[in-house]
Amino acid sequence: MRSTRLEAFSDGVLAIIITIMVLELRAPVAEGRSASFSDLWDGETHLVFSSYLLSFLYIAIYWNNHHHLMQTVDRVTGGILWANMALLFCLSLFPFATSWMGKNVGDPAPAAAYGVVLFAAGATYTLLVRVIIASQGRDSLTARAMGRDAKGLVSVVGYAVAIPAAFVAVWISYAIFVGVAILWVVPDRRIERVLAEEGRLD
Amino acid sequence: MRSTRLEAFSDGVLAIIITIMVLELRAPVAEGRSASFSDLWDGETHLVFSSYLLSFLYIAIYWNNHHHLMQTVDRVTGGILWANMALLFCLSLFPFATSWMGKNVGDPAPAAAYGVVLFAAGATYTLLVRVIIASQGRDSLTARAMGRDAKGLVSVVGYAVAIPAAFVAVWISYAIFVGVAILWVVPDRRIERVLAEEGRLD
Amino acid sequence: MRSTRLEAFSDGVLAIIITIMVLELRAPVAEGRSASFSDLWDGETHLVFSSYLLSFLYIAIYWNNHHHLMQTVDRVTGGILWANMALLFCLSLFPFATSWMGKNVGDPAPAAAYGVVLFAAGATYTLLVRVIIASQGRDSLTARAMGRDAKGLVSVVGYAVAIPAAFVAVWISYAIFVGVAILWVVPDRRIERVLAEEGRLD
Amino acid sequence: MRSTRLEAFSDGVLAIIITIMVLELRAPVAEGRSASFSDLWDGETHLVFSSYLLSFLYIAIYWNNHHHLMQTVDRVTGGILWANMALLFCLSLFPFATSWMGKNVGDPAPAAAYGVVLFAAGATYTLLVRVIIASQGRDSLTARAMGRDAKGLVSVVGYAVAIPAAFVAVWISYAIFVGVAILWVVPDRRIERVLAEEGRLD
Predict the structure, then answer these.
(1) What is the pLDDT of residues A166-185, one digit of tens each?
(2) What residues contact B136, with CB distance under 8 A and at least 6 apart?
(3) Interface test with C, best of D104, D107, D116, D131 (most C CBs within 10 A)
């Protein structure tokens, strides 16, 4: 199987996930009176909106990283196919986790569940990278391109911390979710170059 | 990253946005009697339909413009990627804004909210154009193709006016929304040629 | 604009329309007792299913015809773009019309509404063909390939008859909807060859 | 028609089916108290989740097999087109069957209905293979690649057994659904090589 095909299918699934999440953002009902902006604020709309924005960011980051990763793949093995499907499955849980967290902002359980989904997605992404490297050799383009993947490691550890932290103080979890997303949006190369000059990275 | 890839992902997201909006157009329920056309008219179906038609038009216009814009792009930088994601995010709010306005026709707040989404989409589109020109040089194909972009400017100003205007008289906002859409559907080149002959455009 | 791009976008929209219709097929709720097959039959599930099957067939037919039509197009003009968008808009009303008819089988108004959507889709498809021929010349590949388009004409006339017929006897409309769909699914060439031998077609 | 086009459309439909199933996984409502993990367990969320996971696996398997099958096809005939549409129709019933079974775990009828959908999908897939071989000759690449298709046969027989078995003991059906899915996920070639060495397969 060519990798373009798997990538096209993954892109389709990611495009749908990123878009159907917005279906949770329902127009508030205003029976028998004028609709007003306070309907958005009094209800849960602004909170659902915030969690949607965060999840949109995460799916966009995954699309971007997944695309770069796939460009280093020559042939798709059964292992790569199923590791990729496992990643898509975890990412497909975003709409559920986003909706539950957005409708219950401040509650520990939905924040922890969001952390579980992030952790599962991060772990299967790491698995996908490992499977690709295993099938293509440690000297392959993928292996060299991924390097030590410090950022991926930091992210997965962050999610793992955010899950129990939700039951201590839910805002710690939120801060980790937002912080890790920002870590990925901020231009990569400059940070890495700086770190490289400090000898922190290969 | 090749621009075709970003374009294919954007196309997927736009195809989904333009289609899931129709999910708001629900079949009216007629318990214990025959369904009739008056169910469409007495309920909000015809109003939701009108706002759907308007939003369909806007997404179609964005798809068309986005496609032309991307054809002038050679390489996708991180800045272009994230400006494009910001645009897709704003456009993904169309189903929500369309639904709220369609179910509350005549109320100022939902009309203003629709204007906010249009303004945000117009602003991020302008941002995307600027980022592309910045990355490719002021003499690039994009820079020359976009010219002064009088129509884009008029649109964004129109949306900015429509937001407060909704609280004065909501029909002003509706007129602006429809007017700007027509401005984009009407064949471009003839207008531009006429304006060019008058020396109004470069 | 290349026609492949317009076709890919149209394919995306058609794939979504054909799939989201199934969302109307909801699992019947069985509170406090075992779910049974009679839940499907007592409720409206089997009727919604039948109208879904019919609409699936129609969208599949449109996808097929649209694909063949687009293969004859060299360059996409503004007119072709907007005629195509008008067609997609009409087709995007299928989920609504399907749902309303499926939940109110036997009632004239929803059947007539389904006929209106079919008629609008058929009319915009004919418009699209005309716009393409107009832009490419009467001797173009499209003009020759479409010929007199007897089947298209019969279909649109059928839909036009089905609309008022629903108020006389709704089963006439249903018979027309099913009959026209079968007309398109049955292999084209044999029928046309037979008709051609009879001198009925060019 | 080129087979790439049919494949792209099928991929789009499969990507949407695999993703919209997750919409059934709704965030549990926790009015007036904190949301907790027991909301997931007390309600039906964990059961809906399990049936979603199973169906995700099945659609992924179909995507994979369909892709391999299509690679052996040179030209798409009308018969292939409609056999493929019949397959997509059956697969589009997965969201409904998944939802009904997931919300009524333990009830025979929804499990039998899931078996019917699996059987219909398996049967139309087999039909598609037959139509392709018929159009391309028994010595074609498809015919040789499919061989006797022992796994496909076992699957369809399994689904046929699972339907009545649901009314004896629903857990038999579940075991068959899971077992057949595992049969397809486990790497193909090793099993076939072993069987081939035993002289069980051509």
Answers:
(1) 999 999 999 999 999 998 88
(2) B73, B74, B142, B143
(3) D104
**Chain B residues with beta carbon closer than 8 angstroms to that of C112:** 37
H-helix or E-strand spanning residue C162: helix C150-168
CB D128 within 8 A of CB D87: yes
Rounded Cα distance between B109 and B103, Å, is 12
Structural domain spans, chain B: 3-24+43-197
The separation between CA D86 and the C-alpha centre of its own chain, rounded to angstroms, equals 14
Q: Which residues of chain A are within 8 Å of residue B93 when distances are taken between CB atoms?
A: 22, 25
Collapse the DSSP code of B172 into the 3-class scheme (helix H, G, I; strand E, B; otherwise coil) and give the result: helix
The chains in contact with chain C, meaning 3 or more Cβ pairs closer than 8 Å, are B, D
In chain C, which residue's Cα lies nearest the Cα of D99? C27
Tokens (6 digits) for B14? 């736009």
Amino acid at A168: V
Cα end-to-end distance, chain C, whole Å: 33
Full pLDDT tens readout for chain A, 202 residues: 677 888 889 999 999 999 999 888 888 887 778 888 888 887 788 888 999 999 999 999 999 889 888 877 877 888 899 999 999 999 999 999 999 999 999 999 999 999 999 999 999 999 998 898 888 776 666 666 666 677 888 899 999 999 999 999 999 999 999 999 998 887 655 545 555 555 544 3
Tokens of B117: 């989404």
C92:B19 CB<8 A: yes
Contact C12 D13 (CB under 8 A): no
State how far residue A129 is from chain B, nearest Cα, in angstroms. Answer: 19
Cβ-defined contact of D78 to C187 (cutoff 8 Å): yes
Distance to chain D for A197, nearest Cα, Å: 43
Contact between chains at A25 and B104 (C-beta distance less than 8 A): no
Interface chains of chain B (3 or more CB pairs under 8 Å): A, C
Q: How far is D56 from chain A (nearest CA, A)?
A: 7
**Token pair recorded at residue B34:** 């025959």
ipTM of the complex: 0.87
| C178 SS3 class | helix
Greatest CA separation found in chain B?
68
Average pLDDT value for residue range B126-153: 77
* Alpha-carbon span B27 to C96, nearest angstrom: 6
For chain A, what is the mean pLDDT?
86
Task: Please answer yes or no on whether B12 and A8 come within 8 Å at the CB atom.
Answer: no
Rounded to 10 degrees, the C-alpha dihedral D40/D42/D48/D51 comes to: 110
Give the C-alpha separation, A103 to A47, whole Å: 7
- List of chain D residues whose C-beta atoms are within 8 Å of the C-beta of residue A1: 67-68
Return contacts of A114-119, CB within 8 angstroms, 24+ apart. A114/A51, A114/A173, A114/A177, A115/A159, A115/A160, A115/A162, A115/A163, A115/A166, A115/A173, A115/A176, A115/A177, A116/A163, A117/A90, A117/A93, A118/A58, A118/A159, A118/A162, A118/A177, A118/A180, A119/A156, A119/A159, A119/A160, A119/A163
User: Would you state the torsion angle of the CA atoms of residues D26, C31, D94, D125, taken in this order, to the nearest 10 degrees?
Assistant: 170
- Judging contacts by C-beta atoms under 8 Å, the chain C residues touching residue D1 are 67-68
The verdict on a CB contact (< 8 Å) between B93 and A22 is yes
User: What's the token pair of residue C13?
Assistant: 């929209």
Q: How far is CA B116 from CA A132, A199, B166, in A?
A: 44, 47, 11
Contact check, Cβ <8 Å, C12/B8: no
Mean pLDDT of the region B153-178 = 95
Q: Which residue has the tokens 């209800």?
A: A43
Question: Could you tell me which of D124, D135, D26 has the C-alpha nearest to residue D83?
Answer: D124
Instruction: List Cα–Cα distances, C73 to B195, C66, C68, D137, in angstroms.
Output: 31, 11, 9, 33
Note whether B107 contacts A30, CB cutoff 8 Å.
yes
Is the Cβ pair C109, B39 closer than 8 Å? yes
Residue with tokens 């699309």: A63
